[in-house]
Write a structure and sequence with these properties.
By secondary structure, the protein is of the alpha/beta class. It has a single domain, classed as TIM Barrel, CATH 3.20.20.70. Helices cover 45% and strands 17% of the residues. The protein is built from ten helices and eight strands. An eight-stranded parallel β-barrel has the order 1-2-3-4-5-6-7-8, surrounded by eight helices. Helix 6 packs parallel to helix 8 and helix 9 crosses helix 10. It is globular and about 45 Å long. Bound molecules: pyridoxine-5'-phosphate (PXP). The site of pyridoxine-5'-phosphate (PXP) has 19 residues, from strand 8 and helix 9. Pyridoxine-5'-phosphate (PXP) binds next to strand 8 and helix 9.
Length: 246
């Protein structure tokens, strides 16, 4: 069964828009995470960015305390956040690239260029009993480097696929890249997640990608929740995901 990890960063973004610098405020991303779990989500993803623009340290601590499923901590491969992850002990960390000026995580991690330091972080997490996923573009060199670096998972960046979804030739090309990368990762013993820009419309064609374990979805779910509520939004997405045959 294809699993759903809900990214709750966007709930924190809304809170910070009004309550930045406060120790509390609404909407509460931890409460949102609990509603997602109750609706059937298989895990919760939160990105503790270096600039703390949305999720705060206290959110991650509270998530660790209350979640009944899995906490996936997205993070840059930088000393401060690595230490926080080792202390908070999420079930899995997803290492992502971070740029201050970006609106969201724009590209994949360059594992080829950063292999040595990423491998060190993978080893530290492994020693602590924390799984590691690397958020990469569907590029075969990046998949191979991820396997060498010692992560258990990759998360394929579906942002380019989603961005060009309405341009058929480009969509087909991006799907082929995702399919080839998923196959290669599977052959190399990696487990495959995917995420970024996924919504109810572009989800089903993605089912051509084999070996998917989990999808991480945030923005479209929170957007849908504004009208339908968080519980319904998660249930709708889970219903659509039942069509995946692997
Ligand atoms: N996966 C990763 C690694 C991400 O950085 C993000 C965005 O924060 C997502 C999934 C979810 O993307 P979206 O909010 O577009 O669904």
């Amino acid at each position: 069964m294809l699993k759903l990890g809900v990214n709750i960063d966007h709930v924190a973004t809304l809170r910070e828009a009004r309550y930045c610098g406060w120790t509390h405020g609404e909407p509460d991303p931890v409460l949102a995470a609990q509603v997602c779990e109750a609706a059937g989500a298989h895990g919760i993803t939160a990105h503790l960015r270096e600039d703390r623009r949305h999720v705060q340290d206290r959110d991650v601590r509270r998530l660790r305390d209350v979640l009944k499923t899995r906490l996936n901590l997205e993070m840059a491969n930088v000393a401060e956040i690595v230490e926080i992850a080792l202390k908070i002990h999420p079930d899995i960390v997803c290492i992502v690239p971070e740029r201050r000026m970006e609106i969201t995580t724009e590209g994949g991690l360059d594992v080829v260029a950063g292999e040595k330091s990423i491998a060190e972080t993978c080893q530290r997490m492994k020693d602590a009993g924390i799984e590691v996923s690397l958020f990469i573009s569907p590029d075969e060199a990046q998949v191979e480097a991820s396997a060498r670096a010692g992560s258990q998972f990759i998360e394929l960046h579906t942002g380019t696929y989603a961005e060009h979804f309405h341009d058929e030739p480009r969509r087909v090309l991006e799907l082929q890249r995702l399919i080839a990368s998923a196959r290669l990762a599977h052959d190399l013993g990696l487990k495959v997640n995917a995420g970024h820009g996924l919504n109810c419309l572009n989800l089903t064609p993605l089912f051509h990608v084999p070996h998917l374990v989990e999808l991480n979805i945030g923005h479209s779910l929170i957007s849908r929740a504004v009208f339908a509520g968080m519980e319904s939004a998660v249930k709708e997405m889970l219903g659509l995901m039942q069509g995946y045959c692997g």
